[in-house]
Amino acid sequence: MKIKEIQEFSEIRTKARAYLCYIMERNLPNGLPGITLDDLVAGMKKISDEIGRVDAIYVLDPKGRQVTNTVSIDPKYARTGMGENRSNRAYYYRVIKEKRCVLTDPYPSLGGNRLVVTAAYPIFNDAGELIYIVCVDVTLENILNFVHPSSIDSMIGKFNRWVYSAFSIALFAVALLLFVKGIDSFITYGLEFKHISVKDMFESTILLTLSLAIFDLVKAIFEEEVLGAHKKHAEDDIHKTMVRFLGSIIIALAIEALMLVFKFALTDPNKLLYAVGLLLGITALMLGLSVYLRAIERTRNR
Q1: Which residues of 125-153 are buried (b: 16+ CB within 10 A; e: fewer)?
Q2: pTM score, two decimals?
């Protein structure tokens, strides 16, 4: 799921930075004379209480050396880190260069395979000189839950995954039943193909076509909503699935209309109008599909 999490973060990055920087600005003294580490530690505790679950909070000096122990929910890293040199970290260079609160891209934390982001907030004295840098590490999962509650790893996101999983399984079962029903007539005849009627062939073709259309729909839903496929090509995948689904429906209806034409021509010519009406409906679907494809093409060419 990491790919989808990173993609979601890129979409809400501006909000995430605004959220973290606002909290740090509100709880940390800045631009004042006589700012001490005790003042910053008190503000760090407020930040930790307000955010809830932070991976780590610590303070650096202007040279990138950690001057406080780490405040962390992980007991392995809590109250450690004093004196570590973090001048080679990207957030340190960005703060020195931009002289403002910055937010990093997701990167693996030192505590394991979790992805974290770091918000770094510069502290200046009343003369405008950089004296400290306060850093807050938050896991990618938590930052998505803060800013993007419908994230794949939030409670709502997990509920949605279960719902889509249930619908995917149900639709796959329908597709499988249609497939089995579509080949059932062929199995009953065995190798005696000469006994298979044209009607059975048409009906089997309709059932197999619908089975394929539903399977394509299930595949798109499962990959995007359950497995968390990359959203970069999600729009193209949706268009592709829609075209294939509508195409399969049109083919199935066209076969059914052809069957009705043959049937009514032999048994009741007065009912041919019903077949003609179905053909007109199929034509309207084809026209609608062509307009849809043209609209997609125009959107891509912009």
Answers
A1: eeeeeebbbbbbbbbbbbbbbbbbeebbb
A2: 0.54
